[in-house]
Amino acid sequence: MLTSDDTHSRTTKLLEENAYFGMKPSQVKMVKQAKPHGHGDVHSLLYSTGLLKEWQVPSALGVSAHQRVPC
Predict the structure, then answer these.
(1) What is the DSSP letter of 37?
(2) Which PANTHER family does the UniProt entry name for this protein (predicted)?
(3) Nearest-angstrom CA–CA distance, 65 and 63
C-alpha cells in the first residue's frame, strides 16, 4: 500500500483494527512516500524498499529501465 505522512498511521490503525481484512500482516506491504504527488515515485520506492527484489519483479518496468534503476 502506498501511503503518505498524512495517511500512514491511520491506514496502519485501520488495518490492525480490522485484522488486516482477513490477510496476514506479512501479506501487506506499506510504502510511505516522502512527498505524495501521484504514482510517479512508485518505481524508485519499490526499488529502494527492496520490494522489487522480494516480489521478483523483472527489470522490464519501463520507467525503471529508462532511469537505469537496477532490479
Answers:
(1) B
(2) UDP- GLUCOSE PYROPHOSPHORYLASE, UDP-SUGAR PYROPHOSPHORYLASE
(3) 5
pLDDT: which is higher, 8 or 57: 8
Q: pLDDT at residue 36 above 80?
A: no
Collect all residues with Cβ–Cβ distance below 8 Å to 47 and sequence separation of at least 6. Answer: 64, 69, 70, 71
**Residue 4 DSSP label:** -
Note the maximum CA span of the chain: 40
Burial tier of 46 (Cβ tally within 10 Å: 0-12, 13-18, 19+): buried
Query: Which residues lie across from 39 on neighbouring strands?
Result: 37
* Rounded Cα gap, residues 31 and 22, in angstroms: 20
6: which 3 cell numbers?
A: 498524512
